[in-house]
Amino acid sequence: MSRPLRVFAWLSFVAEVLIIGTGGAVRLTGSGLGCPTWPRCTADSIVPTPEMGIHGVIEFGNRTLTGVVGILALVVVILIVLRTGGRRALGPTLWFAAGGIAGAGAAVALGIALDIPAGPLANGVLLAAVIAAAIRSVRTTSARRDLVLLAWVVLIGVVAQALVGGITVLTGLNPFIVGFHYVVSVVLVCVTAAFLVRMNRPDLPRESAVPAWLRWTTRAAVAALIVTIVFGILTTGAGPHSGDADAGRSGFDAELLEHIHAWPSYVLFALTIALVIGAWRQRDRSPLLARWSIILLGSELVQIAVGLFQARNGLPILAVGIHMVLAALTAAAMTAVVLHLTRPVTGGVPVVTRDASEARAGVGA
Known about the structure:
By secondary structure, the protein is an all-alpha fold. The protein has helices at residues 3-28, 53-114, 118-139, 145-170, 175-199, 212-238, 254-281, 287-312, 317-339, 354-363; strands spanning 206-208, 342-344. The chain has a two-stranded antiparallel sheet with strand order 1-2. It is flat.
């Protein structure tokens, strides 16, 4: 893959992690309604006013980073489409983009005319255009369809996240919508991580590189990680960090959820130890699996230490924020582990069609 694609793919991954950090800062500092409306910051201003203070700056900063994340995701889409299909494949994508922007503008005008929220309507139109462009692009791609699909999923997710973020504000920081917002962010971190892993390996048929028991251990670890993250979200939704003094809570018992959240994390840790041992024994067949399993174990050790610290010290906001970001990085490491359970088939030939070869030739034209 080209150097620009590698650079922007890494930047996209980093940005997806950073926006979890800034989103956490919004919530933990009580700035969730620093900009009380959406998509404007106030009814009369796109940017925060001086009267809104630091809360408005923090909330608007997170919204601004969303735009950066979207631009990076779009650049990755353009670069991978050029790489796999050439300039001819990029044309329809740009037409869909132009149509989506025009449709969003029309939706804004319609919303203003009918005196209805124009932001969600415009965002929905843009999301529909991106989905339509993604479907056409993936269906007409003959080489590295996996990378094309992953790139489009990230872009779709970013546009959808903007819509979910707006709904979060409009519903007064409903804890369940806030939790869903975080889940989507973690998923996007995993997708960008998967893109990085797949980008660095040849497009060859693959076979399992580990015994069945290790595959099942990994699947059990994935399930434990998902349960841990879900109960972590529920715990936060019942805890004191609501994002705003007037925001509602889920009503669950936060102390009970805190204990339940810890149980699957210890199961995950035990499974990861077994995974590391098994991966180390298979390091000749999959050396990267051994390396990533150790990274995963290290991430979990730090995460457990931070979790114990925050639970015993009254949930300090910095520790909670680090805990949120580490959860996403742990999920990214788990993604890398799962993708390294296989290896290229010995003697396999690259999965490249004649059209894809011609497309690659057209990139440099």
